[in-house]
Write a structure and sequence with these properties.
The protein is an alpha+beta fold and about 290 residues long. It has two domains: about 5-70, no CATH class; about 75-280, no CATH class. Helix content is about 40%, strand content about 15%. It contains twelve helices and ten strands. The protein has helices at about 5-10, 10-20, 25-35, 40-45, 50-70, 70-75, 90-100, 125-130, 175-180, 210-215, 245-255, 265-275, and strands at about 100, 120, 125, 145, 150, 160-165, 200, 225-230, 230-240, 260-265. The strands form two sheets. Strands 3, 4, 5, 6, 7, 8, 9 and 10 form an eight-stranded antiparallel sheet that branches. A two-stranded antiparallel sheet has the order 1-2. Helix 4 (about 40-45) packs antiparallel against helix 5 (about 50-70), helix 5 (about 50-70) packs across helix 6 (about 70-75) and helix 5 packs across helix 7 (about 90-100). The termini are far apart. It comes from Gossypium raimondii (Peruvian cotton). This is EID1-like F-box protein 3.
Length: about 290
């Protein structure tokens, strides 16, 4: 039998060999990204090359990035299972970890102008912060929340704080059960900036505890946040300027936090320079 006949009879095996060669070989990709310490900019660019690389990134590379950057947080979110699943996918979790989504005016939170999203130079997620966002009936849930990203708005206004978070096992959480039990409707204007699904306004649901404002450094009634069906949280608040004494007290509290992840921002500052500092959504490929 000639080589041409063998190719016609067994086209699938030839295609598999071709797909497993070079840059499409998953083992090679893992070695490359391990050698560059899972550089976010390179991974975004890799995922934008073609559909096959984007599929590999979605199935494998984003998970590896999350585990590398925040091992304790990821372990808690998947209950210690190395191959566990994440609501919304690993690409959505990676975007949540490294991207501040910005904000626009909502029904319960008005802005003079929108604030654009951008790569976060550094982010710290904490279970302790997350507990401040849970009502007493929902304190058994596990929620990681970031420190607010400060966005200056104007000389006459307080700084805008934008924060994000993620629940473990949201489908089985007390928070979701409470939302369903109260028959809270989805917000008709807002979508999750990380996975694109529908969201509940926790302000409209009256599930915003006063401890959330204290934790953020805001005042009660001057914040709003949303939770999507996959358990991603994003929100905004007006930040109260702190005195020197208050800053010292805050530092003591932070020492007692149960951190989920503290991400160094050097790799992401590089990317912002490449995109002229815009951090626009169009420059992302998650």
């Amino acid at each position: 039998m000639s080589a041409a006949q063998r190719r016609r009879l067994n086209p699938l095996s030839q295609e598999t060999e071709s797909d497993d060669s070079g840059i499409l070989n998953e083992c090679v990709l893992l070695l490359v990204f391990e050698s560059i310490k899972w550089d976010l900019q390179v991974l975004c660019l890799t995922a934008s090359v073609n559909r096959k690389l984007r599929a590999i990134a979605k199935r494998l590379l984003w998970r590896k990035l999350c585990v590398y950057r925040a091992p304790r947080m990821v372990s808690a979110l998947v209950n210690g299972s190395p191959n566990g699943r994440i609501g919304g996918g690993w690409d959505a979790l990676a975007k949540l970890m490294f991207f501040c989504c910005g904000c626009e005016s909502t029904r319960n939170f008005k802005l003079s102008r929108p604030s654009p999203g951008h790569f976060a130079g550094a982010s710290r997620f904490s279970k302790t912060s997350g507990r401040s966002f849970l009502t007493k009936k929902c304190r058994a849930d596990l929620l990681f929340v970031s420190d607010p990203c400060e966005h200056p708005v104007g000389d006459k206004e307080d700084d805008l704080g934008i924060y994000r978070g993620v629940f473990r096992g949201f489908l089985r959480s007390n928070t979701r059960a409470c939302l369903i039990g109260r028959q809270v409707a989805f917000d008709d204007r807002v979508r999750c900036p990380y996975c694109g699904t529908r969201v509940w306004s926790m302000t409209a649901a009256r599930l915003v505890p006063k401890s959330a404002a204290r934790r953020l450094g805001s005042r009660d009634g001057r914040l709003e946040y949303f939770v999507c069906v996959n358990g991603h949280l994003h929100g905004t608040c007006w930040l109260v300027p702190l005195s020197s004494d208050e800053e010292n007290c805050e530092e003591v509290e932070e020492e007692e936090d149960e951190d989920g992840g503290d991400f160094n921002g050097e790799a992401y500052k590089k990317h912002e320079k490449v995109t002229n500092g815009t951090g626009s959504r169009s420059s992302l490929m998650f």
